[in-house]
Amino acid sequence: MEQALRMRFVTEVTAGTISDADYADYLEIEAAFVETATRLHGLAVWGAPDRTALERNARAVHALTTTQADYFRAARAAWPVPARPGAARRAEVLSRYALDAAREGGYPAVMTMLFAAESLYLTWCTRAHERGTVPDGAMSAWVALHADQAFRDGVRALAAEVDALPDDIPQERLTRWFTGMLEAEIAFHDAVFG
C-alpha cells in the first residue's frame, strides 16, 4: 500500500502538478476501468452470500453506470486537451488482472480486490483533499468524491465483506488478490505517463 501511495500519479495530482495531457489520458484510462469495475460488481451480485451484499453491489453497478459514467463524459468533454491515442490500451493491465482473478476466485476475489483498490483511493484522495493543492474543477471533484462519507462507508462495507469471507479461503490467496490488485493499480496509474 505504501508503494502505491507514492505513485507518481498520486503525487502529481495531490500537488496539482500533473499536466493537462497526462490527466486527459487518466480520464480515458479510468473511464475504461469503470466498465471493468461494473463487471466485477455484477459478478458480486451473482455470487452475493446474502441480500445485503446483493443490494450493495447492485447499487454500485448503478452508480458506476450512471453517476461515474456521467462524470467521465462531462470531464472528458470539458478537459482542455483530448487523451492521446491508445491511452486506454496502455492501462489494460488492471482490467486483465482483476477479471482473471475474479474468474478464479469469484465473490471472495472480487471483494478482496475492490477492498484493495478502494482503500487505496480513499487513503490518497482523503490526504489530497485535506492537505493537497488539487486544482479546482474535474480533478478536485474526482478527488472529493473518493474522500466523502459515502465513499468511506463503501470502503467500510467492503472491509466487512472481506472479514466475513469463509474461513476455508487460505490467507495466502486473500493476500495474493489484495497485493496483486495494488501492483496492478501501480502499473495502471504509471501507464498514464506513457
Describe the overall structure.
The protein is mainly α and 194 residues long. It has a single domain, classed as Heme Oxygenase, Chain A (Up-down Bundle), CATH 1.20.910. It is 80% helix and 0% strand. It contains nine helices and no strands. It has helices at 2-5, 8-15, 20-47, 51-78, 87-90, 92-131, 138-145, 149-163, 171-190. The longest helix has 40 residues, at 92-131. It is globular and about 50 Å long. It starts with a helix and ends with a helix. The mean pLDDT is 96.
Helix fraction, binned, reads over 70%
Give a count of the beta strands, DSSP E runs of length 2 or more. Answer: 0
Kindly report the name of the CATH homologous superfamily. Heme oxygenase-like
Q: CATH top level?
A: Mainly Alpha
Tell me the distance between the termini.
Answer: 23 Å
Which oligomeric form is depicted?
single chain
Principal-axis shape equals globular
- Major β-sheet, in short? none
Contiguous runs where pLDDT drops below 50 for at least 5 residues: none
InterPro entries: Haem_Oase-like_multi-hlx
